[in-house]
Specification:
By secondary structure, the protein is an all-alpha fold. It has one helix and no strands. The longest helix is centred in the middle third of the chain and has 13 residues. One of its GO terms (biological process) is regulation of DNA-templated transcription.
Length: 58
Amino acid sequence: MSCPICRQPGVPQYRPFCSRRCADIDLGRWLKGSYAIPTEEDESWNETPTGASAPQED
């Protein structure tokens, strides 16, 4: 299996990556949200149901 970052052959110690550097690059991408899956959010989830009133602050 090749490294998903640089395409070199993977090393069992860092599988599926070839080195710690590539593993750290991948982790950084996860932490920054680069691998987020774009979605179309349904705005209706935030609406109050018909007949219900929103909580009132005193």
